[in-house]
Design goal:
about 350 residues, alpha/beta, seven-stranded mixed beta sheet, four-stranded mixed beta sheet, globular, EC 5.3.1.23, amino-acid biosynthesis
Length: about 350
């Protein structure tokens, strides 16, 4: 299962705004349209945004037909800046753009740079899938037999280069016969849990139960959740992390009920340049995502709206962090620095 395909001279993205009703692939030859697709969540999920942006820079290089190295470098910097402005929270976007910039170096013009950029974007893509497989293998070890797992938002194959982070652990544990049920928070306001996670799990034949976000506490109180696994958009040096809005609430609930709570992420999601979660920029999205449901107004005109796309969970609510380099337990600051510094 995948959502991003490089087609030699164009980029295909599975339109995640249309799932699960229809599976439509859009083709892109203009990097500006990819920036717009990231903004509109056609492609979403921290690692997937990074991969898509890397390919978008290949499209930008293809666009330049001149022979002036300075002009070319300027046009690439402008494309990178436009892509960087698409979404602020997931650090993978900036990580991928930086990595592409380093690969590009001082390459003279589009024709010279293109093969270098394509090779780098494909490497970013391929390495992301490999990291997810390693995450899955490491994470499956902490999943108990007969596990009833709660997840929030979508940290699956389509949120990454392929396979998934939190859902990668679920997939690996499922093949080991350990998963009894995955409860998917529907994840208001944009329903990534209902539309995307439930879709992935059903497609893979993994037992899935959809709940609205306000049902998790009740399930936990009944002893029906053994483990919480969810993704990450940016983790600070001390282990504080941003993830889909509502993650913090799930963390508090898990803590209260004594349920293990893990954030699952590749190293490209770790931002050691910021000491703690207060430095993570949180994306604010349009009011209409909250005042409307499936295009129908559900709130009165004139009401104020608060619509952050992410929240920050303090590291002390984490049981552990599952990465491609294994499972990390507290003290997180030391462990993160040691493995990723
Ligand atoms: O707004 P989204 O859908 O891009 O938010 C996605 C999440 O919060 C995911 O949990 C996170 O990016 C990790 S994806 C492996």
């Amino acid at each position: 299962m995948d959502a991003i395909r490089w087609q030699g001279n164009s980029l295909a993205l599975l339109d995640q705004t249309r799932l699960p009703v229809e599976e439509v692939w859009n083709t892109y030859t203009d990097y500006r349209k990819v920036a717009d697709a990231i903004r509109r969540l056609v492609v979403r999920g921290a690692p997937a945004i990074g991969v898509a942006a890397a390919y978008a820079l290949c499209l930008a290089a293809m666009e330049y037909k001149g022979q002036n190295p300075e002009e070319f470098q300027k046009s690439m910097a402008a494309a990178s800046a436009e892509l960087a402005a698409s979404r602020p929270t997931a650090v993978n976007l900036f990580w991928a753009l930086d990595r592409m910039g380093l690969a590009l170096g001082a390459a003279g013009c589009g024709a010279e740079a293109l093969p270098i950029l394509i090779r780098e974007a494909e490497a970013i893509h391929r390495e992301d899938v490999a990291m997810n497989r390693a995450i899955g293998a490491a994470g499956a070890a902490i999943v108990p037999h007969g596990a009833r797992i709660l997840t929030h938002c979508n940290a699956g194959a389509i949120a990454t280069g392929g396979y998934g982070t939190a859902l990668g652990v679920v997939r690996s544990a499922f093949t080991q016969g350990k998963v009894e049920m995955v409860y998917c928070d529907e994840t208001r306001p944009l329903l990534q849990g209902a539309r995307l996670t439930a879709w992935e799990l059903v497609k893979d034949g993994i037992p899935a139960t959809l709940i609205t976000d306000n049902m998790a506490a009740s399930l936990m109180a009944q002893g029906k959740i053994d483990l919480v696994l969810l993704g990450c958009d940016r983790m600070a040096a001390n282990g504080d992390f941003a993830n889909k809005i509502g993650t913090y609430g799930v963390a508090v609930l898990a803590h209260y009920h004594g349920i293990p709570f893990y954030s699952v992420l590749p190293s490209s999601t770790i931002d050691l340049s910021i000491p703690d979660g207060s430095h993570i920029p949180i994306e604010q999205r349009e009011a209409s995502e909250v005042t409307h449901f499936a295009g129908v107004r559900t709130a009165p005109e004139g009401v104020g709206v608060y619509n952050p796309a992410f929240d920050v969970t303090p590291h002390r609510l984490l049981t552990g962090i599952i990465t491609e380099k294994g499972v990390i337990h507290p003290p997180f600051a030391e462990q993160l620095a040691e493995r990723f510094g």
